[in-house]
Amino acid sequence: MMGHSHAMSGVVGWMAVVPLVQGTEFLGLSFDLGAGEIVAGSLVCAGAALLPDLDHRSATVTKTYGKVTETLSGILSWAFGGHRVGTHSFLFAVLMGVLVQLLALWSELAVQVFVFLLIGIALQGLGFGLDKNRAASGIINALGTAAITIALFTSGVNYTWLGLAVAFGCVLHFVGDMITKMGVPLFWPISKKKIGQGQGFVTDGPVEKKVVTPLLTVGVIVYSVYLFDWPELLPAY
Ligand SMILES: [Zn+2]
What we know:
Elements: H1 3-21, E1 25-26, E2 29-30, H2 35-48, H3 60-64, H4 67-79, H5 90-106, H6 108-126, H7 134-154, H8 162-179, H9 206-228, H10 230-233
Antiparallel strand pairs: 1-2
Helix pairs in contact: 1-2, 1-6, 1-8, 1-9, 2-6, 2-8, 5-6, 5-8, 6-7
The structure holds zinc ion.
């Protein structure tokens, strides 16, 4: 799938999971997700849903922070065996989740920085980066990212779920790649077999453009209305 489809799947995926996990406990974490956690989680998950493509030099995520993400891309591509290999495995999803969770336990500031970086990637992926004017789009993206991160910070969003959201976003990326014709080596390095290869629709083809992207858009709208109870916000007569 294209970057924007992956990012959208992160938003829809998080929104879909919220009602299922609300009030439950998992790995010692209790889920009490309010509006702030829903918005923050959607954007974090959208950003994380682009991370596996850091193994590709021309991916949206690799271009997001210029030399920084390009260098990271080079390192990850080398460490995980090239494009659509190790970064598209459960091992990568778990590693990223654990790394971020440890970061979250270690420092509150690190959490804010990481959330900022992921929201920037998410906005870039969702298409707020306008290709025609890179400098302007970079500034707009940075301001938007900063505004959202600060708004979430001041509203006291609880990020205990951060590592899980990152791992979940990576897994959503694998699903996205598997439903297109590209297989994903989910069990790398134990098995190099690319699961789902040759099945599904063509990346950026008519199915993705005319069916998947519109469906994801409808998903965002439906879940937003459902989760935020928007009708209640309308004036009562
Ligand atoms: Zn991919």
